Amino acid sequence: MNKRKRRKSRRAKRGLYKSMKSGLTYKFRSSWECKYMLYLDLAEHVKQWWYEPFPIKYVSNIKTGKMRRYYPDFLVEMNIGTKELIEIKPSTKINKIQVIKKTLAAREWCSKNDITFSIVTEKELKILELL
């Protein structure tokens, strides 16, 4: 009898998260995003936050000028009034060309709008004890 082994799905965990701070329900695309949502809800220094709040346009192909839209993971407003745009990304993907293009567009957008941009990797998530 030929038994096939079932391979563990590499697909990211997806689901719904209802924010305690806003009461809104968000569709998350990874367990890291879900854990970070809970962290933001429990963090006393966070006034409010939004998941994939808006698109940022960027050039995906310089030769053709093809434009795409990038949706950063979180916009977070702190109690002191500052705002931060946050992208959750594995450290192994940070140097991929598509991620670099999105990061550059986000940094440029943030500098024009007086907002800080950060990439949160598994290293930061471990420091926050989320992994």
Describe the structure using short key phrases.
131 residues; alpha+beta; Trna Endonuclease, Chain: A, domain 1; four-stranded mixed sheet; two-stranded antiparallel sheet; 3 helices; 8 strands
Describe the protein in words.
- The structure is a single chain.
- This protein has 131 residues and is α+β, with helices and mostly antiparallel strands.
- Helix content is 26%, strand content 31%.
- β7, α2 (97-112) and β8 (116-120) form a beta-alpha-beta unit.
- The protein is globular, with a radius of gyration of 17 Å.
CATH architecture: 3-Layer(aba) Sandwich
List the strand order in the largest sheet: 3-6-7-8
Q: What is the CATH level 1 assignment?
A: Alpha Beta
* CA-based gyration radius: 17 Å
Give the helix tally: 3
Low-confidence stretches: none
Oligomer: single chain
Biggest β-sheet strands, sense, barrel: 4 strands, mixed
Output the helix-strand order. Answer: EEHEEEEEHEH
Mean pLDDT: 92
Q: Could you give the distance between the termini?
A: 40 Å
Beta-strand portion reads 25-35%
- What general form does the structure show? globular
What structural category do the secondary elements indicate? Answer: alpha+beta
CATH topology: Trna Endonuclease, Chain: A, domain 1
What fraction, in percent, of the residue positions are helical? 25-40%
Whole-number total of structural domains: 1
Number of E-type strands = 8
